[in-house]
TrEMBL record:
It comes from the Eukaryota. GO terms for molecular function: nucleic acid binding. PANTHER family: BNAC02G40300D PROTEIN, RNASE H TYPE-1 DOMAIN-CONTAINING PROTEIN. This is RNase H type-1 domain-containing protein.
Length: 101
C-alpha cells in the first residue's frame, strides 16, 4: 500500500496537488526595492526600528537595533504591544528607541 509520502509517479503527484487545490507555481514576487544601510558617523550609534500590526487594529509589536559605525549591534529591543494600529506600533518603536538611547 502506497502512502502520499511515497510518490514515484509525477502524474499521481499532480492529481493529489489538484485535489488539494495547490498550485505548482509559486506566486509572482512583489516589486523588491533594494535599500542600502548607511553607517552613522564615527562615535555615533544608529537605530533602526520597526513596528507592525497583524490587522487594523491587531496584535502588534515593535523592535529596534542600535548599531555602531562598523555595523556591530550594541543593543536591541523587541516589545509586544497588544492590540493597536500599525502606525501606533511604529510610533512606539521610535518612542522606545529614544528612551533606550
Amino acid at each position: 500500500m502506497a502512502s502520499i509520502f511515497d510518490i514515484d509517479d509525477e502524474e499521481e503527484e499532480s492529481q493529489i496537488l489538484q485535489r488539494l487545490h495547490v498550485s505548482g507555481l509559486p506566486p509572482k514576487a512583489p516589486h523588491i526595492l533594494e535599500v542600502n544601510w548607511r553607517p552613522p558617523p564615527l562615535g555615533c550609534l544608529k537605530v533602526n526600528t520597526d513596528g507592525a500590526a497583524f490587522g487594523s487594529p491587531g496584535l502588534a509589536g515593535c523592535a529596534g537595533f542600535f548599531r555602531t559605525c562598523k555595523g556591530f549591534v550594541k543593543g536591541c529591543f523587541a516589545i509586544p504591544l497588544g492590540v493597536c494600529f500599525a502606525f501606533e506600533a511604529e510610533l512606539a518603536a521610535a518612542d522606545y528607541a529614544i528612551d533606550y538611547a
